[in-house]
Write a structure and sequence with these properties.
By secondary structure, the chain is an alpha/beta fold. It is built from five helices and seven strands; from the N terminus they run E-H-E-H-E-H-E-H-E-E-E-H.
């Protein structure tokens, strides 16, 4: 099986895929982060699995041609772990979703990632979204539900919602909900 991670960041999903005997391919916007993650990934590789990280924007990268380099047409799992909008700024790059000015800009950008990547998911297979909510100005911004709705609007079937509440997260600025 192949796992695709359009927000590979530090490479955690790719490394865990390798540990579970799955092939993995990630996309990372920042070249320096991709290089560090690739070095970590190389340490985890075993002879039975393949894995790599592509430097690019998950909204526009030609994923199909990258997958064909490995001789595959479709992936069997996509894990989406986008920035939690603007809670943490990951770079100064205007293309970085953590730099979106409004929630509508963030959702539009994330929708483009879904459109560009989910087309490579094998029919009948699964994807998962890992995202936390945002707490700002004494109000909860339910990013998880907004993102879930993007998938539902695109015809995905909802299989489960897992919610874990963190009382003391950076996004809640040490305020309990």
């Amino acid at each position: 099986d192949w796992v695709l991670d359009p927000f590979s960041g530090g490479g955690t999903s790719l490394i865990e895929a390798q540990r579970l005997g799955r092939n993995s391919i990630g996309i990372e916007l920042q070249e320096s982060v991709a290089k560090e993650s690739f070095e970590l990934l190389k340490q985890e590789k075993n002879k039975e699995t393949k894995g790599t990280i592509i430097v690019g924007d998950s909204r526009t990268t030609d994923i199909g041609s990258k997958l064909k380099q490995y001789g595959i047409e479709k992936v069997q799992f996509v894990i989406y772990h986008p920035p939690y909008w603007d809670i943490i700024k990951f770079s100064e790059d205007k293309e970085d979703l953590s730099n979106c000015e409004t929630i509508n800009d963030f959702m539009d950008s994330f929708g483009k990632v879904i459109d560009n990547t989910s087309q490579h998911l094998e029919k009948g297979r699964y994807c998962a979204v890992v995202i936390g909510d945002k707490y700002a100005n004494s109000e909860l911004v339910p990013l998880g539900f907004y993102c879930m709705n993007l998938f539902l609007m695109r015809g995905f079937k909802l299989k489960a919602i897992l919610v874990k509440n963190f009382d003391e997260t950076k996004g809640k600025a040490n305020q309990k909900a």
